[in-house]
Amino acid sequence: MDCDRSPPWRRVGGISQQMLTRTLKTLERDGMVERTVRHSTPPQVEYTLSPLGHSLSETARHLADWAAADQGVIAVNRPHYDASPI
User: Fold this and answer.
1) What is the pTM of this model?
2) CB 3.0–4.6 Å: which of 47, 49, 53, 61 could bond 32 by disulfide?
3) Residue 8: is its pLDDT beyond 70?
4) Nearest by Cα to 31 from 19, 49, 18, 9
5) 79 phi/psi in degrees, rounded to 5
6) CB distance 47 to 24 below 8 Å
7) What DSSP string describes the chain?
8) Residue 76: what pLDDT?
């Protein structure tokens, strides 16, 4: 079993550092994540889900499961829509 300990955003392509920083600041502002600064060399910042973030995570998981289960239907619907006159 491969045990990758790198941060999740390093394992997902297409996320720039700028977009990650902006998104984390917004989530912190909204109270979804909590930021902890570790005074080490080099300084480290850790983000964890707040209780509010945890309360949303179950709903987000259900939405992701729905999207994964129905992505085939969605993929079939898109070309039909795109081909129809508007």
Assistant:
1) 0.63
2) 53
3) no
4) 49
5) -65, -30
6) yes
7) -----S-HHHHSTT--HHHHHHHHHHHHHHTSEEEEEE-SSS-EEEEEE-HHHHHHHHHHHHHHHHHHHHHHHHHHHHHHHHHS--
8) 94
